[in-house]
Amino acid sequence: MNVPRPWLLGLALLATLAMLVVLARPARADGMGELRLVEVPVAGYYLSLATDPSPLTTGTATVNVLLQDPARQPQLDAQVTLRAAPLGEPLGPAVPARLGASANRLLYSAALPLDRAGTWQLVVMVAGPLGREEVTTTLTVEPAPPWPPLAPVVMVLLPSLLVVAGFLARQRRARRGLTVNRNIS
Q1: Residue 65 has what DSSP assignment?
Q2: Which end of the chain has fewer CB atoms < 10 Å from its terminal CB, N or C?
Q3: Which domain range does residue 72 map to?
Q4: CATH for 132
Q5: Are 103 and 31 in contact, with CB atoms under 8 Å apart?
Q6: Is residue 10 part of a domain?
Q7: Whole-prediction pTM value?
Q8: For the chain, what percentages of helix, strand and coil (3-state, to nearest 5) are there?
């Protein structure tokens, strides 16, 4: 049985779509993430806080903080530090949030390890020319979905299957004497 090229092209298209479905993640144009706090007064600033991914899952989360002065202008001369822990446990070590670490250069960003599901306490400490203060909020962290570990398997397995299918199709054509002359003028 000869395998027609449209079938092979269809298989390649299906493999590509399968990889996109498995690996796709929604993207945000603002570079901020899911808003958790909006313009909360802290140490003379207005603080907005967002997290990514949404919803939060175990692993590493990105925490973005926007500081604005009373005139709502971004403030880039403060120090922002994060501490987090599951609710009821001692806070973990301080994690400094840095400017320019995210796509939006006006945000203070930090990678925060979230090692288990549940409710977490997040303390954001702000120190700058207008004052020093901290704000506390809670975050709900869900278990990570079970499918991301399959992504590398899909990325290797599907293209490999395409190569094997092409090789088998070529062997079948050669056995039947249906070789393709690529030097046709």
Answers
A1: E
A2: C
A3: 34-141
A4: 2.60.40.1930
A5: yes
A6: yes
A7: 0.67
A8: 25, 40, 35
